Amino acid sequence: MKWQRPALLWTAVLAAGLGLWAGHRFSPGPSAPAAPTTASTATAVKPALQVGDPLPALILPDVAEQPLDLRARFAGRPLLINVWASWCAPCVEEMPELARFAEAQGDNGVQVLGIALDAPDDVRAFLLRVPVDYPIVVETPGPGDASVQLGNTQGLLPYSVLFDAQGRRVKAKLGPFAHGEIDGWVK
């Protein structure tokens, strides 16, 4: 009798697996062909931003809720964009390093921009506690937010992307910068 229990269990597991496979393999397709999609009926899925691709046309509100055109505002100099959120512990931990780097750049070095995927009130409250001197814009998190448009296909934070002076993507990093890491990373 004891040998029957494992055999019965394995038989049930095998039957369930075959049932799932058959259901997936032999499930009927749509009964009618789908209607063609147009720009007015669906948005095209864009491939992830690659090295050499231009900075997407993004206009986002700053913390004072004024629109900021990223291409116009940051043209002509390299740009390091850091996507973060006030509730993201690694994001908060790397902010002093980003602030140090931004301050060391002066008027001709790499520009730094923070994109907060957060509620505007939460960002303002956070920046009162942890002030930074580089610009911050705010974006509502979602499947097509600025982070995704900048190539963050995993949706994790923090996410940083570097653009050259011509506005072309150079590289990206998922995860926080360690102390002193940014200086070598942007070269």
Q: Sheet with the most strands?
A: 5 strands, mixed
Radius of gyration: 24 Å
| Global shape | globular
Oligomer: single chain
Proportion in helices: 25-40%
What class do helices, strands and sheet pairing give?
alpha/beta
| Tally of contiguous helical segments | 6
Strand portion, in percent?
15-25%
Please provide the count of β strands: 7
Give the topology string: H per helix, E per strand. Answer: HEEHEHEHEHEEH
Query: What is the distance, rounded to the nearest whole angstrom, between the alpha carbons of the first and last residues?
Result: 70 Å
The spatial strand order of the largest sheet comes to 5-4-3-6-7
Mean pLDDT: 82
Low-confidence stretches: 7-43
Describe this structure in words.
It is a single chain. The chain has a 5-stranded mixed sheet, with helices on one face. With 187 residues, the protein is α/β, with parallel strands linked by helices. Helix content is 33%, strand content 18%. The chain is globular and about 35 Å long. The relative contact order is 0.17. Helix 3 links the parallel strand 3 and strand 4.
Short description:
Helix content is 33%, strand content 18%.
Task: Give the helices and strands, then pairings.
Blueprint: H1 4-25, E1 59-61, E2 67-69, H2 70-73, E3 79-84, H3 89-104, E4 111-117, H4 120-129, E5 136-139, H5 146-149, E6 159-163, E7 169-174, H6 181-185
Parallel strand pairs: 3-4, 4-5
Antiparallel strand pairs: 1-2, 3-6, 6-7
Keywords: Cytochrome c-type biogenesis, Redox-active center
Pfam family, one: Redoxin
InterPro entries: Redoxin (IPR013740), Thioredoxin-like_sf (IPR036249), Thioredoxin_CS (IPR017937), Thioredoxin_domain (IPR013766), Thioredoxin_ResA/DsbE_sf (IPR050553)
